[in-house]
C-alpha cells in the first residue's frame, strides 16, 4: 500500500521522475508547469523545503513500495487555521481510490498535526474525478470560480467535526 510521507530532500530524484513521467497527463487538466520548472527543479525543491520549515506550507508525497512517487498532496497558504489543498496522482495510479485515501489522510494530518480547522480546494468543472474525490472526502461546494479561463468550483472542508480523526487500526 502506498504511503503518505512529508516531503524531504531525498525525495527529489523520484519526485522529478514523477513530474516528468506525468507531465502531459497533468497538462490535460491543469496548467503545465513549463520547462523552467524542470530546468530549476533542484533549486525549487530546496525552496519548497525551506518554505515548509516556516509552517506556511505542508508538502507530502505518496510513495509506492519501490520508492516510486505516485502522487503529491500539498497544503499551501497556511494562515488563520486554514490552508489550500492541492493534489495530483500519477496516471497509472488513478481510479484505484488512492486520491481519496491520501486526501482523507491529509485532512487528519491537517487537523491533528498542523492544527488547521478548515481546508479549501478548487477544481475545474471539467474534472469530474477531482470533484468526486473532494465530495467523498467531505469537501462541499462553496462557489463558482474561473481557473485558467475555465469554469470551476471552490470547495471547503471543516476540520473541527468528529469525522476528522485517524482511522482505527486493528491489533
From TrEMBL:
PROSITE patterns: GNAT. The keyword Signal does not apply. One of its GO terms (molecular function) is protein-N-terminal-alanine acetyltransferase activity. The keyword Acyltransferase applies. Residues 2-160 form the N-acetyltransferase domain. It comes from the Bacteria. Keywords: Acyltransferase, Transferase. It is an enzyme of class 2 (transferase). InterPro entries: Acyl_CoA_acyltransferase, GNAT_dom, N-acetyltransferase. Its EC number is 2.3.1.267. GO terms for cellular component: cytoplasm. Gene3D superfamilies: 3.40.630.30. It holds the Pfam family Acetyltransf_3. Belongs to the acetyltransferase family. RimJ subfamily. This is N-acetyltransferase. It comes from Streptomyces spectabilis.
Amino acid at each position: 500500500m502506498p504511503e503518505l510521507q512529508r516531503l524531504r530532500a531525498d525525495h527529489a530524484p523520484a519526485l522529478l521522475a514523477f513530474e516528468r513521467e506525468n507531465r502531459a497527463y497533468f497538462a490535460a487538466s491543469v496548467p503545465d508547469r513549463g520547462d523552467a520548472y524542470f530546468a530549476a527543479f533542484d533549486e525549487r525543491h530546496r525552496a519548497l523545503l525551506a518554505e515548509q520549515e516556516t509552517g506556511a506550507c505542508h508538502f507530502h508525497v505518496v510513495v509506492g513500495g519501490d520508492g516510486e512517487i505516485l502522487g503529491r498532496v500539498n497544503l499551501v497558504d497556511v494562515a488563520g487555521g486554514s490552508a489550500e489543498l492541492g493534489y495530483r496522482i500519477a496516471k497509472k495510479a488513478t481510479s484505484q481510490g488512492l486520491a481519496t485515501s491520501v486526501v482523507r489522510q491529509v485532512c487528519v494530518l491537517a487537523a491533528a498535526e498542523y492544527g488547521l480547522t478548515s481546508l479549501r480546494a478548487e477544481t475545474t468543472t471539467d474534472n469530474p474525478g477531482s470533484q468526486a474525490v473532494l465530495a467523498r472526502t467531505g469537501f462541499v461546494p462553496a462557489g463558482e470560480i474561473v481557473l485558467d479561463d475555465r469554469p470551476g468550483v471552490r470547495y471547503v472542508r471543516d476540520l473541527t467535526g468528529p469525522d476528522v480523526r485517524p482511522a482505527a487500526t486493528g491489533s
